[in-house]
Amino acid sequence: MQLNKDYCIRLIALPCTIKGVTVQDIDGFYNVYINSRLSIEAQNKAILHELTHIKRCDFDSFEPIELIENM
């Protein structure tokens, strides 16, 4: 588990089709869940992808999720 003041990264077993997911709680803290079944390289890519969502403030966007994921 990696902890930051704004987010926490946790490795958990997710379905094979899901690489990672980020959930923002009511206090604005981001919980990043990365699939532990992935290779280390794929986990690192998933972490970078999820942190990019946080950096771009995608959670405050009104854009459709399909558009955000393809940015």
Radius of gyration: 12 Å
- Roughly what is the average pLDDT, rounded to an integer? 86
Question: What's the helix-strand series?
Answer: EEEEHH
The biggest sheet, with number of strands, parallel, antiparallel or mixed sense and barrel status, is:
4 strands, mixed
- What coarse outline follows from CA principal-axis ratios? globular
* Secondary structure: number of strands: 4
State the low-pLDDT regions, or none: none
Strands in their spatial order, largest beta sheet? 1-2-4-3
Strand content: 25-35%
Oligomerization status of the protein chains: single chain
Structural class: alpha+beta
Q: Which range best describes the helical content: under 10%, 10-25%, 25-40%, 40-55%, 55-70% or over 70%?
A: 25-40%
From the N-terminal CA to the C-terminal CA, the straight-line distance is 27 Å
- What is the count of helical runs? 2
